[in-house]
Amino acid sequence: MSHMTYLEASVVGLIQGVSELFPVSSLGHNVLIPALFGGSWATDLSVSRAESPYLAFIVGLHVATAIALLIYFWRDWVRIIGGFFSSIRDRRIETVDQKLAWMIILASIPVGLVGVTFEHTFRVLFGKPVRAAIFLIVNGLILFAAEKFRTRKSLAADAAIASASELSGPRAAPRARAADATVAGATAGGAATLAGPGTGATVHPVAMHASGQRAVRQQEAARAIQADTRLTKIGYVEGLIIGSAQILALLAGISRDGVAMVTGMFRGLSRADAARFSFLLSTPVIFAAGFLKVGDLFGPLGNGIRGQVLVASILSGVGAYVSVRFLVKYFQTRTLTPFAIYCVVFGLASAVYLSVK
Asked: Between residues 141 and 53, which one has the greater pLDDT?
């Protein structure tokens, strides 16, 4: 694999980072794209070959994707990890952070066991381009069904969150809005004069902008805690069911985050909470998958491509970080339908092209 080009590595890295978090299957894309390009791409970048160096390459990129998730959710993971250790120290599970930590651990066990045991079998049987295209169509139909057949409980959860946001909006961010207004005034006049006639006190626009940013971060942290409180109310069994759905992602073309999110919605979670839980569940699973394979890249399989691995990892990490920032906000108000349409159209077109070429 010493002839893998930087272009190939860059394309694969970017696709991995973006498609891992979008509900469109990163493995499916990494199987299909080389086959669609053809030529050296199809021969060099095949996951179904025995001891595939390409598989080690793309799974190794999962480490960069997981790091991006950790960076975005770092405050949440500090709380969750703290909850895990405090539950061991206190020998009880009571707080939201403690409960969520154990929910994530329990929910990750099924996919971990199945992945370690059957990864090779799934890859050989289903890591073929046409089969990946078919499963991508199936993935699209799953996403479509999630929106078409939303449960009343899930819809009610969406409505409750929207209502709470509207009610708390005017009171939740007065500091941020005041800071923005002060910054605007300061920009026009050179400085912002604080309340209190005759004080002569002024605040630099940059300082007030920083205050506004802190207020926004505090508001985001509060919303995250509220979301985690709702997640822990579903219980360990429901969390285990949602986590087990990730097993389907061993089929190239089925999205890990997509099926976890869909299962969460069918179990009564709001769309935003289902997305958040799927991202939190993905982090340890992606890390584990990456570390299992990344060691191969330091052996003979990595000879001649370590520079390409570095470039691909950077692109994968950046793509994943930008994607999760976008998706967290996107799923607060929008649906899975566009991704469903994309998967069906791209999967169908790929299946037809690969069948007739």
From this structure: 141
CB atoms within 10 A of CB 12: 26
pLDDT in tens, 284-301: 988 887 777 777 777 776
Predicted confidence band at 309 (pLDDT cuts at 50, 70, 90)? confident
Residue 354 one-letter amino acid = L
Long-range own/partner contacts, residues 118-122 (CB < 8 A, 24 or more apart): 118/250, 119/250, 122/250, 122/251
Interacting residues of 285 by C-beta distance below 8 A, sequence separation 6+: 108, 111, 112, 115, 246, 256
Q: Is residue 187 part of a domain?
A: no
CA nearest neighbour of 32 among 336, 268, 343, 310? 343
Q: What is the rounded CA–CA span in Å between residue 244 and residue 315?
A: 29
**Please, which pLDDT band fits residue 204 given cuts at 50, 70 and 90?**
low
Q: 310 lies in a domain?
A: yes
For residues 243 and 122, give the distance between their C-alpha atoms in angstroms, rounded to a whole number: 19
Type of residue at 99 = K
pLDDT at res. 207: 62
- CA–CA gap between residue 143 and residue 67 (Å, rounded): 27
Cα 69–chain centre separation: 7
Report yes or no on 185 lying in a domain: no
What integer is the mean pLDDT of 105-128?
A: 83
DSSP state of 248: G
Element (H, E) at 236: helix 235-244
Which structural domain range is residue 263 located in?
Answer: 6-150+237-356
Query: Can you tell me the distance from the alpha carbon of 45 to that of 32, in angstroms, rounded to the nearest whole number?
Result: 10
Q: Tally the domains of the chain.
A: 1
Q: List, in sequence order, every residue forming a beta bridge with 203; answer none if it has no partner.
A: 192
Q: What is the pTM of this model?
A: 0.84
The DSSP result for 131-156, as a single string, is HHHHHHHHHHHHHHHHHHT--HHHHH
Q: Retrieve residue 336's tokens.
A: 């899975």
| Residue 80 maps to a domain | yes
- The total number of residues shown for the chain amounts to 357
